[in-house]
Amino acid sequence: MAVIENQVPIQLTVSDLSIRFGGIHALNAVSLAVREGEIYSIIGPNGAGKTTLFNCISGIYLAQEGSIQFNGLDITGMKPHRIAQMGIARAFQNIELFRGMTVLDNLMSARGHAMRYGLFSAAVFIGKCLQEEVRCRDEVEEIIEFLDLQNLRKSPVGSLSYGLQKRVELGRALAMRPKLLLVDEPVSGMNLEETEDMARYMLDINEEMNITIILVEHEMGVVMDLSDRVTVLNFGTKIAEGSPQEISKDPQVISAYLGETQQLSS
Amino acid sequence: MGSSFKVNYKEDMALFQNLWVKTWLVILILLMIILPFFLNRYQLSILNEMGIATIGALGLNLLIGYTGQISLGHGAFVAIGAYTSGLLTGKLGIPFIISLPLSGLMAALLGLIVGIPSLRLKGLYLALGTLAFGFVIEYILFHWDLTQGDLGMAVKRISLGQFQIKTQKQYFYLIAAFAFLAVLCAKNLVRSKIGRSFIAIRDRDIAAEAMGISLAKYKIMAFGLSSFYAGIAGCLAAHYNRWIVPGSFDISLSIAYIAMIIMGGLGTVLGSVLGAILITGIPHAIVYIVDLLKDTYPALSGFIVDFKLGIFGIIIVGTLLFEPAGLYGIYRRTKVYWKTWPFKY
User: Fold this and answer.
1) CB-CB: which of A59, A81, A109 is closest to B196?
2) In what order do the strands lie in the sheet with A10-21?
3) Per residue in B221-259, pLDDT tens?
4) ipTM for this model
5) Where are chain B's structural domains?
6) What does the domain layout of chain A look like in residue ranges?
7) Which residues make beta-bridge pairs with A19?
8) CATH topology of domain A8-87+178-260
9) Would an 8 Å CB–CB cutoff place A116 in contact with chain B?
10) Mutant choice from A54, A55, A103, A109 vs B, greatest count of B C-beta within 10 A
């Protein structure tokens, strides 16, 4: 785990973000600051607004109030593909792979914006187009190797097991060469071995590739072991922030997760 | 012959993977070159129709099969291509070699405009929008003085310099060359980042956006490309038939194109070709069978003429029921079967 000092620059700032769906406050004035190179976890009970926060950061939802800044640039209201191209990648909670493509093509599709060639070049597939395709293939192969997907390269993603699909989902996000990676429940529904693999990948991504990770996860073991800092959301409101140790002792967090203890009067 | 080691990514990306495939390609080309010498004019005319349909079907498959955007107005884009070239060569005396790309571009331009609503409309609503566009084009062609409405419009022969294309054989070489080129370009496009973006949008549009793929850019590009193909097909059809009436580009043409790509296989290049061959071939096959049987069952011919459309429909419904992946699905299964034969797995 990287040691995070206070002077490490802030990469992502979310300030006073609020979003309502009808009468429901999905997010209520949520603020947080993620430093460069840390693993930052967001936890909370179901319906706390964790995925909604991710959707706001990646531009799929437009928040009604508040703003989001990435590397000092205001990205509030930007189109999702622009935000993605700036370096915020996303691995989805429910597998959102492109089912009609192979593992390799799924990863290559996320690299599309890095290829600089036009329609006519693509139609003849020589020169610039071929060069760029080969270059990006090379880059994508690094990720395939990193995630041990070599023998599945040309398999259609639909034929893979759930755990492998989750890994491809992660690979597709990595293929974008992001600066910040949003990972939504990477180990949900996985067995112990797959969970350990995934946790190892997270650490490697963070340390070797120097990618900041924001993690949403219910599996407390993973959150406590991986995170540098944790934020707890409950009903769209931030109730605590701090190191895993601090969070696990926070009375508000305990009550949100386990419910209030009530004195029974006799 | 099938197995080989690839030492770089360029080889792995090659369109024609090994010597085996290349040999077949050469055989196919040679076959195309000598075929006209063995076929009569009627048979060649069927092949020519198939070639034109292939180009149109490829365009529609890029849009519906790859990008997942429904269009019921493909016939209208074919019409735009046909009338653009008809008017350019007829009224302005522009040579075919220039009017051909212009008719494609004209269709593409209108395709881009029709593509804009696709950013907001999905599924049935988009189908309705494109259907309406088809009716608008048909209405314009019927009522515009220049296109002479129902009377139809004569289209000039194709002339390349001094040389004029007159016989079915000459048409065959021209159309086959363009169909071949269209297949090659489509094949290249779908394995490039453009094709991958199309499929990404079809499979998961939200995830596609989160992967840095601009929905607006690629949806509109798909419409443009699809219409460009349609325009080229229309231009060739116009010069081939040498007479165009608005009625031949109505909704039934759009439906025929949709039938082609569904029967052939959505989201595959080979499927578009097979579908075009099948749908164009069925009416001719029915006529042929009736001809064979007319001495034995003279009553049949009258009966078949009435039910030609019905038989057509039955074949389509049958395919959908028993082979939803289309002809491409049959092809893939056969290929896998022979690859592993005599072992079961």
Assistant:
1) A109
2) A24-35, A10-21, A65-70, A73-74
3) 999 999 999 999 999 999 999 999 998 898 889 989 998
4) 0.89
5) 39-250
6) 8-87+178-260, 98-177
7) A27
8) Rossmann fold (3.40.50)
9) no
10) A109
